[in-house]
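Form 7-S
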Amino acid sequence: MTTSCEDRLNIPKHGNMGSMDDYYQTDSEVESALASMYLSWRSAYYNWWFVKNALSDDAWAAGGQRSDNVLLEQMNEYTYDTSNTMISGLYSDLYTIIYKANLIIDLVPGTTNYMKQAIAEAKVARAWSHSELVSLWGTAPIVDHLLTPNEYRQANGTPETTWAFVEQDLQDAISSGALVSKSGVNDQVTGMHLSLEAAKAFLGKAYLFQGKYKEAAAILDEVIDSQKYDLYSDYDALFHAKANNCCESIFELQFRNDAEQAWNQWEMFYIMIGWRTDKLTLTGNALSTIASGTYGFMNPRKSLYDAFVAEEGTDGYRLNCSIRNYEQMQAEGVSVAPGSRLVGNEGYFSWKTRILKEDCVIDQSYFQVLQYINHRIMRYAEVLLMAAEAHLQSGGNRALEYINKVRTRAQVEPLSSVTLDDIKTERRLELCLESCRFQDLIRWGDAESVLANQGKEVPEMGYFATGQTDEQGNPVYEFGQKWPYTNTTYGFKAKHKLLPIPLTEIEVNPNMTQNVGWNE
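Output:
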């Protein structure tokens, strides 16, 4: 087993595969580089989704029991510090995307149309990554080229220069003429790549986050007026595999329903956010449709449920496609198993993020990691709501039109006039658990009030011992809800407006300064 036959290998004897400078010379090689960039983006999605949603007021960290995932609990309860590895993991993930993009931008010669397209897509990916870095960390450095070893220790950036860089990259990609554009609203193939309209949507979001409302309204109008997108009619199916690359998709990261390739694309995302089925009993409709064997993280909060009810009532269409209360779960055939308890649960379950058997490449109840639901980065409803906000803030005349498009699909009464509070509410409901809420609260200046008490107490629902025994001497349990876990340090403070630069970065880079408040 330790011998080989060199003379039978169809490669030059003692040859090499060449350097980076020799690669990226054909469309095929460039396609591989572009695929690698998208794969890095797909790998980043796990940390991206969990960090941003855990920091919001949409959900409890939850899981199988207390301390099932301490890193997630720390973010959810505002007890995290500079060593939280999910935060540092996202930081590294974003720079990995940037590195893969810079390989294409710096090394692809651009001599064919496909090469020009790849360079433009790489600029969009690089801009998106920097926009996440600046909106979450504020002072993370710009990396606008492949770094040489003597450049590895970059100093902090500034929000102003990073946002300007994001704008420039997106404007360059848009004006290049190289980005693809969907042929029509039902084109499900072209949008698998970063498109012209996706770049415009990302640019509109960058403008909105900076308060450049007039510019945001103008570029987002272009996306809407292209008539290449529409709201998917079935909100309940929108977050499942059947809606991959549908008319509402601005950009999503791809998975394949290919059993032979299943283990090349497995990941932990959906097993984490599915219900904690080892503590539940499933019968009837739930038993036949739900992919069980999942871990039960990120249960919706009562405050989110109540916000839905206040806007659309207990029978609201969008509410019932997003969240189910315990009584509704029981009607579907789901109940807490006798003697079990669900940590981080107020009696509400995410319906929006449930995984179905039909979403699975292979349905594995023992290790449920083989789904082919594409990762949604942005959808058309977000574009409409961003445009509504931009028009309202800039004195434009289309805010009411745009918000009512979203409300009509949600089967909620149209508004006769619109305020910023209306848009805030609509964004919370429409985009719940879609990685928007935390950054929205920051940019609106609402985080300190909304998140002030987050983490003070943590609930648990299920069967609690009464201290009594039955005739056979077995302990007696009573079903209910308690708040058994507390923190003395909790809640959003001023320093949380920016995430901490990861401790690992500070330790190896003397040119990097920690964000305000995180050296305490």
